[in-house]
């Protein structure tokens, strides 16, 4: 899991704040950060949701496929979980760094969600012992700033609520065999009852108290945490301790009582937001459950304001140091454009391999944000790589065909697409990545992500 380094002075400051029920960001010990929920965000799935909790961002997609029931429960369907820890979330997930965390998250999700008490698995059965619906739940960690379990559980519940499964019609052929037909009518579908689907509440022991929705800084000050899955009725369905420290029985009891109270209070606004999202249809915007007990800005103490000033001063010093290092190690080898540098990397790779290569070097795939940047990048490619070469750009439309996003998941503001009809992006589903060409003067075109192209990485120096 992503970690941060905290000095002893910072630990003392954070622990004293928690003791007085005043955290660094102004929240109380039982308050969540601001949460935003979007549903139906991935076009090629049967259900999807994106949840942002503070700076933690989770994307969940669900795909329903017909499979064979498990022998022990022939009259039930089941769920399969896969968690992908993207290197975009934190550099610690590069390569195989996120594999262990992904497995841990998947195992926890199995225990919490894949049982008949959470979801009516019998409703997923098509023909006992022969056919059933299998829900493949893919979880992608887009950004990591603590409290992954809670954010993922909310995203899974929202995606399950958004899932629509085609109605199945079974008929017999002339030889007595069974034929399965799926309804083509998008409104002739089955919806899942998510009322009993629990949410996970993670409580971290910081000093002599425990906090809900801990940030990475607070997590670094915690000796142990307790994961508690709670239904809308306040029933605890699963408890799990994480962390190397120990918890005494009294602390466990207090944490469980807090988890029940907080978890029960979370369900009602969550369901209200999901129902509102669905009723709005295409007009919906990002929604946030109403939070209780949020402290006003006036609750910040002079000590917090003083700490923020010191942090700002440190950030300025770090920015200057980063710019100096970038100028020394990157810009002298490549080219400096405004507050970023471009540097060519030897060799050709696929889009995902090229993206990982840039991450390993501390940057991202080049993404011009203005015509001036695009022209200078084109000149650099023309001189350093070759006039007929193409380089990968840090944009793609893998999530939704025709909707191009940068590597932060934001909409692309500047484009320079080739005007030729056969180069217009969004028309070919096999071309989901973009390249800048050295031949037609820096024009962009869409390309198959598996193709091997040249690499130019971008490094921000602020």
Automatic annotation (TrEMBL):
Record flagged with keyword Disulfide bond: yes
GO CC term (a single one): nucleolus
CDD domains xrefs: RNase_PH_RRP42
Annotated compartments: Cytoplasm; Nucleus, Nucleolus
Chain residue ranges for the region called Disordered: 277-299
Gene3D superfamilies to which the protein is assigned, alphabetical: GHMP Kinase, N-terminal domain, Mannose-Binding Protein A, subunit A
GO biological process: exonucleolytic trimming to generate mature 3'-end of 5.8S rRNA from tricistronic rRNA transcript (SSU-rRNA, 5.8S rRNA, LSU-rRNA); nuclear mRNA surveillance; nuclear polyadenylation-dependent rRNA catabolic process; rRNA catabolic process; TRAMP-dependent tRNA surveillance pathway; U1 snRNA 3'-end processing; U4 snRNA 3'-end processing; U5 snRNA 3'-end processing
Presence of the UniProt keyword Disulfide bond in the record: yes
Gene Ontology terms for molecular function: carbohydrate binding; mRNA 3'-UTR AU-rich region binding
Chief localization: cytoplasm
Keywords: Acetylation, Cytoplasm, Disulfide bond, Exosome, Lectin, Nucleus, RNA-binding, rRNA processing
Complexes and interactors: Component of the RNA exosome core complex (Exo-9), composed of EXOSC1, EXOSC2, EXOSC3, EXOSC4, EXOSC5, EXOSC6, EXOSC7, EXOSC8 and EXOSC9; within the complex interacts with EXOSC2 and EXOSC4. The catalytically inactive RNA exosome core complex (Exo-9) associates with the catalytic subunit EXOSC10/RRP6. Exo-9 may associate with DIS3 to form the nucleolar exosome complex, or DIS3L to form the cytoplasmic exosome complex. Exo-9 is formed by a hexameric base ring consisting of the heterodimers EXOSC4-EXOSC9, EXOSC5-EXOSC8 and EXOSC6-EXOSC7, and a cap ring consisting of EXOSC1, EXOSC2 and EXOSC3.
PANTHER family: EXOSOME COMPLEX COMPONENT RRP42, EXOSOME COMPLEX EXONUCLEASE RIBOSOMAL RNA PROCESSING PROTEIN
Family: Belongs to the RNase PH family.
Official protein name in the record: Exosome component 7
Organism of provenance: Conger conger
């Amino acid at each position: 899991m992503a970690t941060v380094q905290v000095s002893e002075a910072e630990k003392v400051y954070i622990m004293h704040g928690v003791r007085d029920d005043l955290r660094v960001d102004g929240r109380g010990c039982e308050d969540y950060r601001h949460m935003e929920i979007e549903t139906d965000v991935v076009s090629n799935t049967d259900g999807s949701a994106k949840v942002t909790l503070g700076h933690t961002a989770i994307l969940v997609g669900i795909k329903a496929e017909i499979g064979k029931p498990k022998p022990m429960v022939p009259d039930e369907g089941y769920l399969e979980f896969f968690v992908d820890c993207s290197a975009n979330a934190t550099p610690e997930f590069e390569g195989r760094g996120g594999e262990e965390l992904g497995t841990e998250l998947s195992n926890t999700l199995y225990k919490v969600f894949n049982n008949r008490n959470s979801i009516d698995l019998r409703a997923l059965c098509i023909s006992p012992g022969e056919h059933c619906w299998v829900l493949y739940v893919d979880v992608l960690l887009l950004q990591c700033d603590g409290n992954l379990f809670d954010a993922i559980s909310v995203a899974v519940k929202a995606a399950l609520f958004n899932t629509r499964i085609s109605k199945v019609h079974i008929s017999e052929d002339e030889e007595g065999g069974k034929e399965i037909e799926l309804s083509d009518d998008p409104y002739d579908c089955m919806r899942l009852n998510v009322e009993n689907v629990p949410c996970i509440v993670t409580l971290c022991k910081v000093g002599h108290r425990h906090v809900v929705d801990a940030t990475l800084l607070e997590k670094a000050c915690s000796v142990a945490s307790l994961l508690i899955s709670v239904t809308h009725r306040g029933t605890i369905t699963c408890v799990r301790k994480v962390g190397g420290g120990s918890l005494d029985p009294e602390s466990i009891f207090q944490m469980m009582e807090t988890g029940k109270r907080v978890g029960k209070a979370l369900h009602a606004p969550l369901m209200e937001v999901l129902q509102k999202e669905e009723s709005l249809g295409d007009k919906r915007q990002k929604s946030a459950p109403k939070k209780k007990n949020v402290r006003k800005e006036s609750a910040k103490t002079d000590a917090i304001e003083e700490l923020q000033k010191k942090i700002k001063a440190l950030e300025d010093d770090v920015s200057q140091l980063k710019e100096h290092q970038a100028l020394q190690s990157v810009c002298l080898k490549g080219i400096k454009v405004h507050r970023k540098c471009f540097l060519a990397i030897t060799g050709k790779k696929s889009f995902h391999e090229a993206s990982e290569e840039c991450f390993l070097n501390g940057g991202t795939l080049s993404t011009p944000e203005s015509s001036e940047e695009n022209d200078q990048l084109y000149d650099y490619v023309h001189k350093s790589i070759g006039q007929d070469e193409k380089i990968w750009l840090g944009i793609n439309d893998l999530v939704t065909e025709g909707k191009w996003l940068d590597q932060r998941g934001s909409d692309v503001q500047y484009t320079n697409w080739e005007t030729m009809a056969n180069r217009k992006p969004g028309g070919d589903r096999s071309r989901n990545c973009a390249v800048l060409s050295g031949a037609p003067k820096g024009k962009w075109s869409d390309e198959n992500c598996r193709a091997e192209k040249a690499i130019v990485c971008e490094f921000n120096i602020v």
